[in-house]
Amino acid sequence: MREFLRWQRGRQASGYDKMLLARGLWPLPFDCYLLRFPEGAEIRPHTDPVGEGRHFRLNIVVREAREGGEFVCAAPIRASRRIKLFRPDVCEHSVSRVLRGTRHVLSIGWVRR
User: With contact defined as beta carbons under 8 Å apart, do 88 and 77 qualify?
Assistant: First the structure.
């Protein structure tokens, strides 16, 4: 697995980086990434559709940016300052532009069929 434990560019050409920490297919398809949002990074509002099943994601903010980098979700399942549980397949979500500092997030996702 060439992407395992290596920084790669994130999706949507939004300026964030991701590092794959774990992935599995059984008994529940899942992935676990460390995400890094440097100054200027942002993710525009979007959803992440899946072919079948329900997609869940748990984001744990390991390090907040000094300014900006706020997670925005229309209807999270649970949300606190550092923990966000949501359905990225049906709930529009985004991250505001990081203005100062770097934001790090542990992101664990799975699909229930």
Answer: no
DSSP code, position 90 = T
Distances (CA, A) of 70 to 3, 6, 24, 36, 61: 27, 25, 29, 13, 10
Give me the CATH topology for the region 7-112.
Jelly Rolls (2.60.120)
Domain extents in the chain: 7-112
- Rounded to the nearest angstrom, the gap between the alpha carbon of residue 69 and the centroid of all alpha carbons in its chain is 12
| Residue-by-residue pLDDT tens, the chain, 113 positions | 688 999 999 877 789 999 999 999 988 899 999 999 999 999 999 999 998 999 999 999 999 999 999 999 989 999 999 999 999 999 999 999 999 999 999 999 999 98
Residue type, 93: H
Whole-structure pTM value: 0.93
State whether residue 13 is helix, strand or coil: helix
The tokens 């100054």 sit on which residue?
A: 39
